[in-house]
Amino acid sequence: xxxxxxxSDTTADLVxxxxxxxxxxxxxxxxxxxxxxxxxxxQLEDGWRGSVRFGxxxxxxxxAGSAYxxxxxxxxxxxxxxxxxxRFAAAQSRAGLLGVLVSLxxxxxxxxxxxxxxxxxxxxxxVAEQVGLRPPRTLITNGPEAARRFVKEIDGPxxxxxxxxxxxxxxxxxxxxxxxxxxPDGLDDSIALCAHQxxxxxxxxxxxxxxxxxxxxxAAEIHAGNDAAHVDWRNDYAxxxxxxxxxxxxxxxxxxELMCRFGLVFGALDFVVTPAGEWRFLEINPNGQWGWxxxxxxxxxSTALAGLLQGGSxx
Length: 315
Description:
There is one protein chain. The chain folds into 3 domains: 2-110, no CATH class; 137-200, Dna Ligase, domain 1 (2-Layer Sandwich), CATH 3.30.1490; 203-286, 2-Layer Sandwich (D-amino Acid Aminotransferase, Chain A, domain 1). Helix content is 31%, strand content 28%. The strands form 5 sheets. Strands 16-15-14-17-18 form a 5-stranded antiparallel β-sheet, sandwiched between helices. The protein has a 4-stranded parallel β-sheet with strand order 2-1-6-7, covered by helices on one side. The protein is built from 9 helices and 18 strands. The chain is an alpha+beta fold. It starts with a strand and ends with a helix.
């Protein structure tokens, strides 16, 4: 089986360790190693035949029974190329390597195309609403007047959330952008510069991180110990406490349908649980982090992932 991720991915390490204990052959590499250190040879003969080689290790394409598409890097082009040539080579490398690999008849956790589809938050919210998971009232706009009108109509706290990850600073370092409470007086015309997501604040007793692996559900309550973590628990991990929890049947049915609609076998979902005990969907990350949840709760997520990948493997 293949594992595609960075060399320093400690979360993927947990799964690889489980697979090693099961004596499942693992071929691990990062896309940043292609084409300098990784060699692809693929010929179309009733499907792609050939191999991927990285150093002294090699995997035959026809024998790749499963693939864990964790968090591989961007393609890195070496050598003295011009900017245009570097962009061309990167595009060719991405299309060639990933184009061959995603066409293989194997289990993907998750297929890169399905990850991409499910990463569109407006689409997530649409499906979540359709399957009864009750997401908050949401506005997506680049219109300042529409934003101000939405805040007025909600007549209560409104939060701002990014639509696609965080920000990248001037040094190229990615940084997260936590959820924040909207100051109505701060809704100026700069809203017109890009799309923004505004949501009603749902009164919450706590949140839940639900990790789904195949048909197994691993849910943990997240309780915030201060105001900053109550708004967004990512603000202060040290202020959090956790408790394993069962998933209500109606939520489970909705999540199963959501996963099926997007073709996912893995997902990390966030819910708000109101003081009345109602679960309200916030979002799904089709390639979300889960290692810290396993560490603090003991939930056997890596074991489930290894079992899923082993079950899809034919080698």
